[in-house]
Amino acid sequence: MNDISRRGLVKLAGIGAAVATQLSATETAYGFTAGASETIAPVAPQTHKFNMTVEEARLSVSRGFETNVWAYNGQVPGPLIHVREGDFVEATVTNKTKGVHTIHWHGMWQTNSWRSDGAPGINGLAIESGGGSNTYSFKADRKGSLWYHCHVEVPNHVGVRGMWGPLIVDPADPLPIEKEVTKDCLLMFSGWNSDVADDYFAQEDPSGHLNYFSINGKSFPYNQPIRVKEGDVLRLRLFAASVAVSFHLHGHDMLVTHRDGMPVPYPQLADTVHVAMGQRADVIVHMNNPGRWPFHDHADHHLSNNGDTPGGLFGIIEYEEVGIDDPWYLWAHKKYDPDFYFTESMKKGYGLITQSGFKATPSKS
Ligand SMILES: [Cu+2]
After folding, report:
1. Gap between the Cα atoms of 223 and 52, Å rounded
2. What class does CATH assign to 47-170?
3. Which option is the CATH number for 177-341: 3.40.1190.10, 2.60.40.420, 3.90.1150.10, 2.60.40.10?
4. Which listed residue, of 32, 60, 75, 232, carries a Cα 20 to 30 Å from 38's Cα?
């Protein structure tokens, strides 16, 4: 080995040691190995140009409960936007509804692109109803678990009309622990108000009286299990889109690695993770305890469907090893959708990735 490459390695080891200092205590306790940072070949930034729509539709959230939504590309949650740090996004959005809307790209700095921030009357205009359009252009200058949402009459449009979707920016320099992840799941938490379900333009603040709650647009038991196998390293990306959650997972500790897309200085083990309105938390879980395990919000009101329990923000992790055929298992006959938590979509490369499973029923106009 010559001196130059040795010096390079020493330098790299120094960087690795810095990361390891941050992570080692928790990672060691947790059974992960903190490897030295690897050099990552720089990738040329790409430009992702795509079209989006806002459509009037009916979303079935729970048995007996449908609501009017303004759905990005006809689906709730809106389609996954998945890019890499440093890529460029050019999204042309056409508004096919009777309301006015924007897209705010929550978390982006919008350096030199402030007019694409989506705050109406402040840095741009809302997109006109009945076919108006706007193009948002910006560089993905933030990384991690971001999201997008409308910024018009937020208590209605974001609060109870489903105007939100995930925006994942892969970091150029992922932490060693991120490279261990074998399964990615995105969970977007929201509330609904059946009193205003049929009236897009109800006058009262509709987010003040929520009586249904959902993960990715469906209340328990109409949502889906997360299927894993022993040895999986599961990342849950938690999005408090329109309700705050105290997310609890049975049988495991979760390592909180990122808040709002950014690595936390001291990753922390927790069995309950609070995510305030608008925030995101990434947690990584070592799947080492085969069984069937609930995960749920610990705000008790959120565990009901208009008062009926169990319901709302509740789900189940199913280990393959234990199967699902106990006759008393309440989800034994569930039809399984492997993309309900965007797991398959996250493997499909970059750009705008739609999910047919989240399509709402188009409204007749
Ligand atoms: Cu809107």
Report:
1. 25
2. mainly beta
3. 2.60.40.420
4. 232
Strands (DSSP E) contained in 310-359 are 314-319, 351-353
User: Measured in angstroms, how far is the CA atom of residue 109 from the centroid of ligand 1?
Assistant: 21
**Domain coordinates in residue numbering, the chain:** 47-170, 177-341
Tokens of residue 77, six digits: 């949650």
Distance 52 CA to ligand 1 centre (A): 13
Look at the alpha carbons of 211, 212, 215, 219 in this order and tell me if their dihedral is positive or negative.
Answer: positive
| Count, residues in the chain | 365
Token pair of 205, please? 């603040």
Torsion (CA) 297, 236, 346, 116 in degrees, nearest 10: 70
Q: Which amino acid is at 196?
A: V
Q: Do domains 47-170 and 177-341 have the same CATH topology?
A: yes
Cβ count within 10 A of residue 37: 19
CA–CA dist 198, 214 (Å, integer): 18
The model's pLDDT over 271-282, given as tens digits with 9 standing for 90+, comes to 999 999 999 999
- Ion ligand 1, residues whose Cβ is below 5 A away: 101, 150, 152, 157, 163
Residues 6+ apart with CB under 8 A from 352: 48, 50, 52, 73, 79, 80, 81, 91
